[in-house]
């Protein structure tokens, strides 16, 4: 761990595990190091990054104003899969915020990253450790396959516990707004705030993961309901395609090259989603047929990732 800390202090980039996905980390106060994160990922420079902080960090060093609602959420969800957006402190580099007047902050809940943050004693900017727009990594091997030697160090902390990115919340007036669903459900957030956060509007602040196409494998995705799954897959198999099946419950499709289910466990579905997308690419499948999970709890975030992964812009 000391090696990782020393490399961050020297302006290097280090891949680290969080409970959500692996992140490509750099010293958030080092403009050159942050710029290298963008270069390694191929990420547009106007896309803001999330700054990861240790427990008990002084938020006032990063944000000008912390709403009471944010403090209530932090008390429950930090450390954890919740990112909150605030008006930034003047000392936060433009490179971190994508030139916006806001900054995204999170306290991650992974023992490896928590230990690093205690030793580093500063903010660490860390988007997902993969090429921009592609499938996020949930293991150290995923990071290597995505970025290889472009990363100075990869810290292997095992598979990520949640497997999809954090929920991102902003505060517009007196209301909380979920900009990106994630590991913290809207129902759980509503239990803390006493009301359900609303969806973003076109005028809402930009945040990571809001593009129509994102988290996308090479393999095409066909999304459907549980009842449609077998029929859709059988038709594709009959047309000579190599087909993969991904569902929450068990579905048997003769002739499919890959059939996987989460055993009706939504947590397993979330943890396995990106790995199964990578497997579909590795197996050179033509299409991955996915039955959408229920539109509640963690299923909301899974559906969001699937819709973005399946999106193909009309040229």
Poorly predicted segments: none
Chain-averaged pLDDT? 94
- Note the beta-strand portion: 15-25%
Spatial ordering of strands, largest sheet? 7-1-2-6-3-5-4-8-9
Q: How many whole angstroms does the radius of gyration measure?
A: 19 Å
The backbone outline, from C-alpha atoms, is globular
- The class by helix and strand makeup works out as alpha/beta
Number of strands: 13
Distance between the termini: 46 Å
In DSSP terms (H or I, runs of 4 or more residues), the helix count works out at 10
Q: Sheet with the most strands? A: 9 strands, mixed
Structure characteristics:
alpha/beta, four-stranded parallel beta sheet, nine-stranded mixed beta sheet
Structure notes:
By secondary structure, the chain is of the alpha/beta class. Helices cover 32% and strands 18% of the residues. The chain has helices at 2-9, 31-41, 68-77, 94-97, 111-120, 140-147, 186-193, 226-238, 266-282, 298-310; strands at residues 14-16, 23-27, 50-52, 82-87, 102-106, 124-125, 153-154, 167-172, 175-180, 220-224, 243-247, 258-261, 287-291. A hairpin with a 6-residue loop joins strand 1 (14-16) and strand 2. The protein is globular and about 60 Å long. The mean pLDDT is 94.
Write the layout of secondary structure elements.
Layout: H1 2-9, E1 14-16, E2 23-27, H2 31-41, E3 50-52, H3 68-77, E4 82-87, H4 94-97, E5 102-106, H5 111-120, E6 124-125, H6 140-147, E7 153-154, E8 167-172, E9 175-180, H7 186-193, E10 220-224, H8 226-238, E11 243-247, E12 258-261, H9 266-282, E13 287-291, H10 298-310
Parallel strand pairs: 1-7, 3-5, 4-8, 10-13, 11-12, 11-13
Antiparallel strand pairs: 1-2, 2-6, 3-6, 4-5, 8-9
């Amino acid at each position: 761990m000391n090696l990782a800390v020393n490399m961050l202090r020297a302006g290097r980039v280090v891949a680290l595990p969080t409970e959500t996905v692996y992140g490509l980390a750099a010293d958030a106060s080092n403009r050159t190091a942050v710029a290298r994160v963008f270069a390694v990922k191929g990420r547009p420079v106007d896309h803001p990054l999330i700054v990861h902080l240790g427990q008990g960090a002084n938020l006032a060093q990063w944000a000008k104003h912390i709403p009471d609602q944010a403090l209530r959420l932090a008390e429950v969800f930090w450390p954890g899969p919740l990112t909150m957006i605030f008006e930034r402190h003047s000392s936060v580099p433009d490179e971190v915020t994508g030139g916006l007047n806001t900054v995204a902050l999170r306290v991650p809940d992974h023992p490896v990253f928590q230990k690093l943050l205690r030793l580093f004693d500063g903010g660490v900017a860390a988007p997902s450790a993969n090429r921009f727009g592609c499938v996020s990594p949930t293991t150290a091997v995923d990071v290597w396959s995505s970025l290889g030697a472009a990363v100075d160090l990869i810290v292997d902390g095992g598979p990520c516990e949640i497997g999809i990115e954090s929920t991102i919340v902003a505060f517009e007036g007196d209301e909380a707004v979920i900009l990106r669903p994630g590991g913290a459900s809207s129902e759980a957030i509503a239990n803390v705030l006493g009301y359900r956060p609303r969806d973003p509007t076109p005028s809402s602040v930009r945040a990571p993961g809001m593009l129509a196409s994102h988290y996308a494998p090479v393999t095409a995705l066909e999304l459907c309901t549980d009842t449609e799954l077998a029929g859709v897959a059988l038709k594709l198999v009959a047309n000579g395609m190599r087909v993969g099946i991904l569902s929450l419950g068990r579905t048997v499709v003769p002739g499919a090259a890959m059939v996987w289910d989460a055993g009706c466990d939504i947590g397993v579905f979330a943890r396995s989603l990106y790995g199964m997308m990578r497997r579909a690419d590795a197996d050179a499948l033509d299409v991955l047929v996915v039955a959408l999970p229920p539109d509640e709890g963690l299923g909301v975030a899974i559906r969001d990732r699937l819709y973005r992964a399946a999106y193909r812009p009309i040229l």
